[in-house]
Amino acid sequence: MSGSGEGQGKKTVTACVLLIGDEILSGRTKDSNLSHIAHQLNQIGIQVREARVIPDIEAEIVATVNEVRAKYDYVLTTGGIGPTHDDITADAVAKAFGVSIGPDPDAMALLQAHYAETGGDFTPARQRMARLPQGASMIANPLSKAPGFQIGNVFVMAGVPMVMHVMLDSLLSRLEGGASMLSRSLTASIGEGTIAEKLGEIQSRHADVSIGSYPYYRGREFGTSIVMRSVDSSALERAATDVAQMFAQLGVSAVEGEKT
Amino acid sequence: MSGSGEGQGKKTVTACVLLIGDEILSGRTKDSNLSHIAHQLNQIGIQVREARVIPDIEAEIVATVNEVRAKYDYVLTTGGIGPTHDDITADAVAKAFGVSIGPDPDAMALLQAHYAETGGDFTPARQRMARLPQGASMIANPLSKAPGFQIGNVFVMAGVPMVMHVMLDSLLSRLEGGASMLSRSLTASIGEGTIAEKLGEIQSRHADVSIGSYPYYRGREFGTSIVMRSVDSSALERAATDVAQMFAQLGVSAVEGEKT
Question: Which fold would CATH assign to domain B182-256?
Answer without folding.
Answer: Alpha-Beta Plaits (3.30.70)
